[in-house]
Amino acid sequence: MIYTEQFQNYLHSEAFLAPLGLSRGTQLDFSPLGRGEYNTNCTFTHPNGQKLVLRINTGSQMHLDDQIGYEFSALKNLEPSGRTPKALFCDSSMNCLVMEHLPGRPLQYETDLPAAAEIFADIHALPIPADCRLLEPKNPLVAIIDECRQMVSHYYSWEESDPTVRNLLETLEKEISAKDLSAPEGIRKCIVNTEVNSGNFLINPGAQSYLIDWEKPLISEPAQDLGHFLVPTTTFWKTDVILTPEEIQHFVSCYRQAVSGRFETESLMERLPLYFTVTCLRGVTWCAMAYREYSQPGRAIANADTYQKLQAYLQPDFLENLLKNYVRRDFLKG
After folding, report:
1. Rounded to an integer, what distance in angstroms lies between the CA atom of residue 50 and that of residue 103?
2. According to a count of CB atoms within 10 Å of the terminal CB, is the N or C end of the chain lower?
3. How many other C-beta atoms are found inside a 10 Å radius of the C-beta of residue 277?
4. Which parts of the chain have pLDDT scores under 50?
């Protein structure tokens, strides 16, 4: 890991060590864990033997002034579920937090749908604390549509955009916007992750499994997480999996069973197809925006796999499949 001299000094200071119960001058060894666009993560071992994660924030997709504090607050609210990392402390002045390191492997759609259903059920069953600071869109579906329009505008204004792709994107947006996206009174709200791809799960067959990476949590409907989890714009991103209607129905059945009466799930059957549609639109409009960025003259392709997926998502066949099977069809009814 490469830190500024100021941050290196911070890691040896009382401000960092004291919350961990350590004295000034304690030496800790940090190893890279993973890096995203807005965060850098590394692991270290506490002298008591506990393996921990140091997460350093470098920006905010949500345009927050205190992104790391927002994540810390979410983790503290989620801790009673037993399905997320326990956060030890946060220092917003240095944009970092420390949390426990959890074991597990990435989720495999072919075998782990029941485990994912149990994780979601335990998280969604948590009551929202009275002092919860997480953002709550007035209408999550409309908020996602608005985000999609903003992202895809970058592709529409590009003189090299593909007319066939543009037409399909416009058709998707038009047909989805024409649906009844109103939010019913009394719909259950909970804390949702909003970015539930396979790499954010830590699966331990026969033991407790987890959901990590709480960078963009919101207060919303359970259907927002489930819709994002099941659609091809999520499953196909890191794998080559597109779930069948039978697999989707099986997952929903597992989820309702795992909820086990802790909250009502009848409305889920009506709300989930709507989240299928807007999540698919969000995925391909983001890809359209990113594809333009990747195609700029002189821009190096930082990740060849990402570039290939961007191209795959913007193929007419892929877009037509979304339109036919996720916008014009209710997967829960077969």
Report:
1. 12
2. C
3. 25
4. none
